[in-house]
Each structure stands twice: as C-alpha cells, then as structure tokens.
Amino acid sequence: MNSVSDLRSLADSSVVVVGGGFGGLSTACYLADAGADVTLVEKNEQLGGRASRLERDGFRFDMGPSWYLMPDVFEDFFGRFDRTPSDYYELTQLDPHYRIFFKDGDRVDVVPDLEANKETFESYEPGAGEKLAEYLRKSERNYEIGMEHFVYEDRTALSDYLDLNVAKNAWGLSLVGSMQDHVERYFDHPKLQQIMQYTLVFLGGAPNNTPALYNLMSHVDFNMGVYYPEGGIGGVVDGIAELGEELGVTFRTNAPVSEIRGREGAFVVRTEGSEEFYADYVVSDADYRHTEMELLPPEKRQYDEAYWESRTYAPSAFLLYLGVEGDVEPLAHHTLVLPPDWNDHFETIFEEPSWPEDPAYYLCVPSKTDDDVAPEGHSTLFALVPVAAGLEDTPERREQFRELVLSDIEENTGVELRDRIVFEETFSVDDFTERYNSTKGTALGLAHTLRQTSLFRPPHRSKAVEGLYFTGSFTTPGIGVPMCLISGQLTAESMAERVGRE
Fold it and tell me: Domain Amine oxidase: where (predicted)?
C-alpha cells in the first residue's frame, strides 16, 4: 500500500472530530499520531457510528456492519501505528463464507476452496467453472491496481486522471459500463450473475447503476476470505478506540453537536448541552448533508438543498433483531435469501420507492461462531432487508413487514422463528435518521453510482470554510468499513498538504 504522506505539519494543532464512526476514528488516530491535540465528539452513547452494538437480555448484536472483509486494509491501518489487528482482536475465517437460499428451492454455499466453488458454478452452466477462475483473475488485478492507484490516492480533479502514470495503471481496468454489463460477459445463468453481484448491496447500488470497476469486490469475497472478528465489528471499534487512546485522542460521547462556527485557527464546536470545544481545525464524520445544512450557517455551505435532493442515496434498511430459543439450522453465520429475479426489489429501492413485496435479504447468526453473543441454548439472529431511503416508516408498516419477513424466512429456509422469540427489536428508516442524523434514513451514505464515484463525490476539504474537513462514507473512497478507514487517512493527508503549503 502507499505510504502515508508526511503529517508532521499538523503537530501542535488542535482538532475537533465530529462523529465517532470508522471515518472519524481513523482520522483521529492519524492526527493524534502526527502530534495534534485531538478531541472526538460523538452524538450517541457509544463509539462506532452505524457500527453500534445492541446488548439486551444476554443477547448482543452488531446493529450495522457485520461482515469483516478486506483484511489487508485493517492490517495496513494498524501497521501505520506499528501495531497489528491481533494486538486488539483475533479473527476466525468463516466456512462457508456465506450461504444462499434461492426462493425456488436451490441452496448454494460459497466456501474458501476455489475448486469447490468452480464445481458449483459448473453445475449451473457448462464452462462456468473456468469462467469463474478467469473472472477472479481479472478481479484480483483490478483490486491490486485499483487499491494502490485509485483508492489510497485521493484524485480530486479531472486533471489527476490525465497523468500518464495513471493512464498506464488504468489500462485494462473495467472503467466503462455497469456491473450488469461486466458480469453478463462471463455468465449467462441469472443465479451466477446474482452471486457475483450481491456485494453491490455493500456499495449501496444496483447491477445497472454501479460501475463495472467494482468487480474487484469478487476478489475480496472469493479470494481474500470472510472473517469474524472477536467481539464482532463492535470489537473492531473497541480496538481502534483503544488505539486512539494510546495515541492521545480524547473521546466524548453523549455529546450531539448543534453548531460549527468560525474558521481555521478559531473554530467553536457547540453541543446541545451547551458545551463548547475550541480548535484550529474541524473534521466532520457526521452525515455530510446534516453537517452542511444543519450545523453550518448558510453562507458557509458548499451545496444547497437542491444538490442534496438530486443525489442517489444508498438504501436504508429494515432490521429485525431477534433472540430465539434453540438453534436456527440450516442458516449459516452469513445467509442470503434471494428471489430468482431480484430486479423488482432493486426497482423498489432506486426507481419507484416502496416496500418490497418479494424481498432479497440477509440473515446474520453470529451465535454460530461466537458463544458470547447469546445465552446458553439460544441463538442471536438479525434480518436485514434493503429498502429505499426516505420511505414512510410507521409502526403499522413495520408490523406488516415483520410478518412478511418471518413468513418468508420460514418458507424459504425452513426456519420457524415466531414461537421461539424471547427478545425482539426493529430498526428502520426513521431510526437511521434519528440516531445517526442520516439523510433520508440511508443506512450507508451516497450510493456508488456511475455519477457518484471518485471525484464526483463530495470533497474532503470544504470549499467554503478554510480549516473544515470531511471524512466517512460520503467522501472518497466511499461506502464500507474498510473504505471509511482509508477515508480517514485521505482526510488527514489533505489537511497536512494544505497546512504544509501554508
């Protein structure tokens, strides 16, 4: 991976980081390591942002992210500070990586063994096994080049892409077209196409609106492995927070920010509790639109409401957290339930927003791997159904959708849950808005559409307020825990570059 730019120009400066998601935690660590006096102010009662934890009646849930992918990014992050992930948590590789129940009765396991996966693909389509190997070789090349030259480098202007070195490295990358176009060149069978594209959910997109470049996610999925970190994703949050404390970061929770005033060298960050934090610089890991439209005065905004209305937002979600008696065979740690044709579901997210009638969804059963997340003799389970951001979210609608989801799980996986539920809680569109100040209740941020990737995402450095910066999923490189960790590095480098020039 690329080495981090020299951040020493930030030494002895004071910084307030607003928001304790992965982007904010990462930025805080880089700045503190550079010698800055860093205070991170978090709205909620715990750090982690959308990676919050729900603990009740002996059950523990990761409320948001639950897949540990791209282990190289975590190794790289901790390595910047002469640590390793194992200094803070251990990893267990999952086998299968995940299980898929197709709603016509088919069941597929994606496993760590490539040859076994090739046999699975071959069983659906003659020649698809070797096509899978070819696809993954392309995906691996895209991953290696894309990460080094495009993800770990913040190219903020079109001229950055006209550089000969960039052009040389971009040669052969899948920079044109959609994921649907790319996958169709390899596989005809719709189920194989779905398997190669399910990771788009993590990017907040659909097959027809996500750039083909993101086929690199298949290298992540098939070749790099899927892991479970000790303590879940919440354990990773704890590890990075512990690292931050070692580096000198001060953390303040239960401190929702109400206002950001001032400029470089003279910022005031006020909370709803009337506390004031003074700093030379401010970094916001809060929702980008919320920061601009709610925390800044009108004359200090880069974008107006029309801009934010014109954006395509990643889905929100309907989440059902369940503590149940007994086991939940035949579910795996990660399970996907997919209709043979999922286009209707994507249309209800991006084209005609509505609650899906035949949903594609994800089930997570961490108690398959971790005995500490449920009382003895019980299972911890949550269901996540992607739904359109901004949907009307009422108690009546939630109850109707709960019934639909429970019936669908029983019908398509054989797991009956209703009579065994001892703990239950839902979380959906309005909760994302209330807990995370999330625009339209998006669960992820700005979708990775063709027009919202790379330099087309909002910048790390405010164009309207000197000394104000942004990090997290609205910025580059984008959505997902690993991307937000990298976003923290890019934000710190942007700050150091600016300060160094001055």
Answer: 23-494
Please state, in angstroms and rounded to a whole number, the distance separating the CA atoms of residues 209 and 202: 14
Per-position DSSP letters for 441-486, written without gaps between them: G-SSSB---TTSSGGGSPPSB-SSSTTEEE-STTSSS-SSHHHHHH
Token output for 173:
């990358």
Cα separations in angstroms, 465 against 168, 262, 267, 439: 36, 8, 10, 22
Cite the beta strand spans of 347-477 per DSSP E. Answer: 361-364, 378-387, 421-427, 468-470
Provide the angle, in degrees to the nearest 10, between the axes of the packed helices 190-197 and 114-124: 150
Cα pseudo-dihedral 183, 189, 191, 193, rounded to 10: 0
Looking at the DSSP bridge assignments, the partners of residue 469 are: 283, 461
Contact 257, 295 (CB under 8 A): yes
177 CB-contact burial (10 Å; exposed 0-12 / middle 13-18 / buried 19+): middle
CB within 8 Å of 405: residues ≥ 6 apart? 318, 320, 359, 361, 383, 385
Q: What pLDDT score was predicted for residue 502?
A: 60
pLDDT at 168: 52
CA 191 to chain centre: 25
| Residue 147: per-residue pLDDT | 85
Query: Encoding tokens for residue 343?
Result: 């286009």
What's the pLDDT at 161? 47
What pLDDT is stored for residue 440 in this prediction?
Answer: 97
Whole-angstrom Cα distance, residue 394 to residue 385? 16
Q: Are strands 281-284 and 468-470 parallel, antiparallel or unpaired?
A: parallel
Q: Is 12 exposed, middle or buried (0-12, 13-18, 19+ CB in 10 A)?
A: exposed
DSSP state of 34: T
DSSP 298: G
Q: How far apart are CA 282 and CA 263, in angstroms?
A: 9
- pLDDT on residue 158: 52
Report the candidate in 173, 25, 195, 194 with the shortest Cα–Cα distance to residue 109.
195
Q: Can you list the residues of the chain whose pLDDT is less than 50?
A: 160-162, 171
Q: Which of 263, 280, 231 is nearest to 37 (CA)?
A: 280
Nearest to 71 by CA among 220, 195, 183, 208: 220
Cα dihedral 50→55→60→64 (10° resolution): -10
Report the distance separating Cα 125 and Cα 121, nearest Å: 6
Cβ proximity of 420 and 378 under 8 Å: no
Residues 6+ apart with CB under 8 A from 252: 39, 40, 41, 42
DSSP symbols for 62-121: ESS---B--HHHHHHHHHTTT--GGGT--EEE-SSSEEEEETTS-EEEE-S-HHHHHHHH
In this prediction, residue 176 carries a pLDDT of: 54
All domains in the chain, ordered by first residue: 8-90+230-311+450-501 (3.50.50.60), 116-221 (no CATH), 312-436 (3.90.660.20)
